[in-house]
Automatic annotation (TrEMBL):
This is 5-methylcytosine-specific restriction endonuclease McrA. Gene3D superfamilies: 1.10.30.50. Residues 77-130 form the HNH nuclease domain. One of its GO terms (molecular function) is endonuclease activity. It comes from Nannocystis exedens. InterPro entries: HNH_5, HNH_nuc, NA-targeting_endonuclease.
Length: 181
């Protein structure tokens, strides 16, 4: 069994047999695929995963050895992904902020039965969130800039939308992201 180092958000970029990036998976999954000989490892992170008897480099970029079955690729609902969907822009005042200055706002407040879903959660700056309080945009007189929706992009597009310093160095060649910033 793999010894764990929990809480590390490292991900692995997956390329199809023709070297085109297709998705992002967890390094654990990537390591499993590599043990199963389903992928070849093209690049690794410096950090190693240790088991009782061995240590393995953590895969950063892997290439599928056989074409994958096409399946639905959905973007997971998460704070970070909502920020990315909204381009880090407060959906009330329209100003762009960095992650730590942003909050998630329930358009229809939770107390009124508003769900935590792509269509009811938007990016809001702390000031707008406070101003809106537990009210709907109409009640608060704070109209939404865009109607929130589930993003149409795939986990792949997500990687391309990440700030360049969040994209692992080894991925940049494959994603066509400029280096050196
Ligand atoms: Zn705002």
């Amino acid at each position: 069994m793999l010894a764990s180092w929990m809480g590390n958000p490292m991900h692995t970029l997956v390329l199809d047999p023709g070297f085109l990036p297709i998705k992002v998976i967890s390094w654990r999954r990537a390591l499993c695929l590599s043990f199963l000989d389903k992928v070849e490892v093209l690049a690794s992170y410096e950090r190693e995963v240790r088991t009782v008897s061995h240590s393995y480099p953590t895969p950063s970029v892997v290439r599928l050895l056989h074409a994958a079955r096409p399946g639905p690729q959905v973007v997971r609902f998460s704070r970070k992904n909502v920020y990315l969907r909204d381009n880090h822009r407060c959906q009330y005042c329209g100003v762009q902020y960095s992650d730590h200055e942003l909050t998630l706002d329930h358009v229809v407040p939770r107390v009124d039965g508003g769900k935590t879903t792509w269509t009811n959660v938007v990016t809001a700056c702390a000031a707008c969130n406070r101003r809106k309080g537990g009210r709907t945009p109409e009640q608060a007189g704070l109209p939404l800039r865009t109607r929130p929706a589930r993003p149409k992009w795939t986990p792949m597009t997500l990687a391309q939308r990440l700030p360049v310093h969040d994209v692992p160095e080894a991925w940049r060649t494959w994603l066509g992201v400029a280096s050196g910033r």
